[in-house]
Write a structure and sequence with these properties.
single chain, alpha/beta, 39% helix
Length: 217
């Protein structure tokens, strides 16, 4: 059995997704991820599927669906981009966290691992809290780093919900506010925070997250 990605290009119409999912279910295949892009009347739907026994049979059946133009078999995002580090907060601090994360990820990726780094500089409690809440909906998000000089209130609440609902580890810089009281690791040096974020999620690093959880560096 395989885990694969499928990109399907078609002319958009009502019932298209139903027809696709009916075929996938009929082959006893599980949909693990889906995203859709629509422009005018052209649609691209990307699926990640597990328990695929016969890729060619699946591809042929999907190509025979009315309005489908092309079907491509891809490697999954996990295989290409791997786990994701998400960095949110103030621009200057964010850039330093990313510097550490990218440098450390490069060492691991050269050895065959796949870790990617995504970031958004934001200011304001409401915007940052919204971004933290959204991390749980991000595909492959594995760890969150909060980089700023002051965070609390709704951001603290969002961090608590993210950890409780999704189990995503959260690292923060040593800042004012209540956020450092609820995250897993507090780090003073932003570059070191980026490095630790990679170590926390790496499958090749000799690093025990549970031994440093709740500590300040």
């Amino acid at each position: 059995m395989n885990t694969i990605g499928i990109s399907l290009f078609a002319t958009d119409r009502k019932g298209l997704l139903r027809d696709i999912s009916t075929i996938i279910a009929g082959l006893d295949i599980n949909i693990t991820y889906i995203q859709q892009f629509l422009k005018d009347d052209e649609v691209q739907i990307y699926f990640e599927l597990s328990d695929v026994r016969n890729v060619e049979e699946l591809k042929k059946l999907l190509e025979n669906i009315d309005s489908v133009v092309e079907v491509e078999v891809n490697r999954t995002f996990e295989e290409i981009y791997g786990k994701r580090v998400i960095v949110v907060g103030g621009g200057a601090q964010v850039s330093q966290v990313v510097l550490g994360a990218v440098s450390e990820a490069d060492r691991h990726n050269l050895r065959g691992e796949r870790i990617s780094v995504d970031t958004i500089p934001l200011a304001g409690e409401e915007k940052i809290a919204e971004a933290v809440n959204a991390v749980g909906r991000l595909h492959r998000a594995a760890v969150l780093v909060l980089a700023g000089s002051l965070m609390g209130g709704e951001i603290t609440k969002a961090v608590q919900e993210l950890k409780a609902d999704y189990g995503i580890p959260v690292i923060s810089l040593n800042m004012a506010g209540s956020v450092p009281n609820v995250v897993d690791i507090v780090v003073t040096d932003p570059v070191q925070a980026g490095v630790l974020a990679i170590m926390v999620i790496s499958s090749t690093a000799r690093f025990d997250f549970n031994k440093v959880k709740g500590r300040k560096f």
